[in-house]
């Protein structure tokens, strides 16, 4: 069996789907599931398999499972991830249409009468076979991710109805309100999440680790594709990393969102200047090569008998 080279090129940012757990799972469930997967993919549990299969198992563990567990086991990153999930659910509800899903389990969940019970059952069913065939891991993760999407869509609807009922109840005469227990608005949550992405990117940038800084901002623009600050900062990071094409793309998008974005305008100008200089250098190099080739041709013709007269065997004696 050949390792699935495309598996690790996909962007698995749904950590719950990678681990095969519900988005409602607590820290104990996360750790228990991780240990189960780690034992299953450990070399001692894979005796008798081919070298290719053992290598594939090692890559699945190190490149998918371990990063997902790390993200969900750390309080800060786990909290941020849950906020992102909630915002996705709210965004789905605002569209007024159900998410487009292709797997049968997700389509069934859209119509299930009891969302929580049906969701847990579906997740557990997929989790049981998630790592049985390593070449199908990406497919199962995709199905789990769709289940999570549907659950967020439907459970957010229930939450919205519950919150609406609570607000109506609180509006009754004599009802007390408590600012300390007020639910943060999505806008405030969004600002906090964006700030965390940018702060981490800045930390990586200070250490000249541009690749990881870029990854942070790429995650940010996936969640907030119309945020000009993220596109602008990402364009600057790409330029520092020597990726002019990507720098130009994100600078252009930032300027579309905010025509006065000074950083994006500066990056765009520098990319264009670098591109012009590169084109000029290539043109000069091409001219030099042509000149050298022409001189070489003349030299060869001279060596063959003195130019025109040499074509007829040289001068008459």
Helix content: over 70%
Rounded Rg = 30 Å
Helix/strand-derived class? mainly alpha
Number of E-type strands: 0
Termini separation? 79 Å
Q: Please state the overall shape, judged from the principal axes of the Cα atoms.
A: globular
Number of domains: 2
Helix and strand run = HHHHHHHHHHHH
Unreliable runs, pLDDT <50, ≥5 residues?
A: 1-11, 158-185, 306-317
Strand portion: under 5%
- The overall pLDDT, averaged over residues, is 78
Quickly count the helices: 12
Main sheet characteristics: none
Explain this structure to me?
The protein has 317 residues and is an all-alpha fold. It folds into 2 domains: 7-67 and 85-161, no CATH class; 186-271, Serine Threonine Protein Phosphatase 5, Tetratricopeptide repeat (Alpha Horseshoe), CATH 1.25.40.10. 71% of the residues lie in helices and 0% in strands. It has helices spanning 15-19, 27-41, 51-73, 75-95, 104-111, 115-129, 137-170, 186-206, 210-223, 228-240, 244-257, 262-303. Helix 5 runs parallel beside helix 7 and helix 8 (186-206) packs antiparallel against helix 9 (210-223). The chain is globular and about 75 Å long. Mean pLDDT is 78; it is low at 1-11, 158-185 and 306-317. Residues 14-77 form the J domain. Keywords: TPR repeat. It comes from Shackletoniella antarctica.
